[in-house]
Design goal:
Elements: E1 3-11, E2 13-14, E3 17-23, E4 31-32, E5 35-37, H1 44-56, E6 65-74, E7 78-87, E8 102-109, H2 119-129, E9 134-138, H3 142-176
Parallel strand pairs: 1-7, 6-9
Antiparallel strand pairs: 1-5, 2-3, 3-4, 3-8, 6-7
Length: about 180
């Protein structure tokens, strides 16, 4: 079964630099953006405001967040929508608050990102530079996705046959009366 997830990420850009969090080695060691998962009781903006307060200690206002990109990312076991918001205003000083997850918060040159910047972050930043509001990523081997599609197609075919069988049985029982 495929998990469906909604994520949110924050893009803060100043003077051709973008704010990135460096994950600890235990968490992958890549450079990423602040943000996280939208919980059941939240809308996207509220989730991002909560995540940014937890991760980098800043206070954001909903009206100061503008959607700049939406990424639809498919993995074998996950179907994910990530909404990227840009903020130009915030309160409090930016600092790394979740030391177990992140080693540091850094301002990085947007045109020369660190080597360990995640592929997804690189993709999204390039898409935003090109003015694309939406993009798609397929993560994993195409052959694995093909196998899953074939299995689903076969399952639907079996369900259809079972429904026909049930309909036929109910038609016979009505005729018997």
């Amino acid at each position: 079964m495929t998990t469906k997830t909604i994520k949110v990420r924050l893009i803060i850009e100043e003077e051709k630099k973008v704010l990135l969090l460096e994950q600890t080695n235990e968490n992958g060691g890549k450079y990423t953006l602040a943000g996280g998962t939208v919980e059941d009781v939240e809308f996207a903006r509220k989730a991002l405001i909560r995540e940014c307060k937890e991760e980098i200690g800043i206070k954001l206002k909903p009206d100061d967040l503008v959607v700049v990109h939406i990424l639809h990312k498919k993995k074998i076991e996950e179907d994910r929508l990530t909404i990227y918001f840009k903020a130009t205003k915030w309160e409090n000083r930016i600092k790394c608050k979740e030391k177990k997850k992140f080693a540091a918060v850094s301002w990085c040159d947007i045109d020369n990102l660190p080597i360990r910047t995640s592929f997804t972050v690189r993709h999204v930043i390039e898409q935003i530079k090109m003015g694309a509001l939406y993009s798609e990523l397929l993560v994993g081997k195409e052959s694995a996705f093909k196998k899953i599609r074939e299995e689903r197609k076969e399952r639907k075919k079996q369900e259809k046959n079972e429904q026909k069988t049930l309909l036929n049985k109910s038609a016979y029982s009505k005729n018997d009366v």
